[in-house]
Design goal:
alpha+beta; Alpha-D-Glucose-1,6-Bisphosphate, Chain A, domain 4; 7 strands; 26% helix; ASHA1/2-like_C; START-like_dom_sf
């Protein structure tokens, strides 16, 4: 059975502001890494068929060894769909020797205007079996909290 992990949050920012943060490499480095990690974008091509490579580094790899190395998770992400300002679909492949982390995981970011902001729902399908579901959903919720803080601060600065 195909595994689906999901997280959702209302963010007090316009859909266009949230969408822009999904397609800006500096923004991604700031908000995408969940608590306990930092990220670095190494390649960037923001168009359907393009993508990026991100290296996520654990701040403390003692209890959470990485998929790519002891302290890192490297992921190749392709943009399968870009529909401003409503939807971004990504195909993610982790660089890992362990077959439990192999395969293509699809990440769909759905943005829906709601009173006072944007409902952001991220849905991960075909999640590799080696990724713990509870940990993954916690990490997605952490990334959404980071995204909210990032874009809400930008909205306040612009407003």
């Amino acid at each position: 059975m195909e595994r689906i992990d999901r997280a959702s949050r209302v963010i007090a920012a316009a859909p266009t502001t949230v969408y822009d943060a999904l397609l800006d490499p500096e923004a991604l480095e700031a908000w995408l890494p969940p608590d306990g990690m930092r990220g670095r974008v190494e390649r960037w091509d923001p168009r359907p068929g393009g993508g990026f490579r991100m290296v996520l580094t654990y701040l403390d790899a003692t209890d959470a060894p990485g998929k790519t190395s002891d302290a890192t998770d490297a992921v190749e992400v392709g943009f399968a769909e870009l529909t401003p300002p409503e939807r971004v679909v990504q195909r993610a492949v982790f660089e890992a020797d362990d077959p439990a982390h192999a395969g293509v995981m699809t990440m769909t970011w759905q943005l829906t205007a709601v009173g006072g902001g944007t409902q952001v729902t991220v849905t991960a399908t075909d999640v590799p079996a080696g990724i713990d579901q509870t940990d993954h959903q916690t990490a997605m919720a952490s990334s959404l909290a980071n995204l909210a803080a990032y874009v809400e601060a930008a909205e306040r600065a612009d407003g």
